[in-house]
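One-letter codes give the sequence; the integers encode the fold. A sample entry reads:
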Amino acid sequence: MTAKPGAAKGGIATVKYDEVEVGQEIPAVGYPVRRVNLVMYAGASGDFNPIHWNERHAKAVGLPDVIAHGMYTMAQGGRFITDWAGDPGAVVDYGVRFSSMVVVPDDDEGATVSISGRIEEKLDGNRVIVVLTAKSGDSRVLSKARAIVQLA
């Protein structure tokens, strides 16, 4: 990944409200997902369900392979927004629906979650609504993904 447009300076959002427009696109960023990421997330979250790390178990319950935790995928969307805004505290509200799985094969590639955004609406008080698109391969993995972000 490269430097983000809103890289933090002093703990406040660095993206300025007056410099964004409705319909403005936020370029996609690809987040690699490997099995080791899922094991680390399991440790941090306490969610050790074997569908997230054991291929035999995942396939035995009818999944195509190990799948990423839904909350892990959601967290990548949150990361995308906070990186863009330049301040994690700028996110006022964030919600998603899970629409598809991120299948993570056990190889050198793993999977990639690609996330992009668009300014949907400008609100009073220097706030904007950002809608996110999150895909893995050809599948949209998050739907109704929106964040309200407090800008400078």
Summary: Helices lie at 35-45, 55-60, 70-85. The first strand starts at residue 25 and ends at 33.
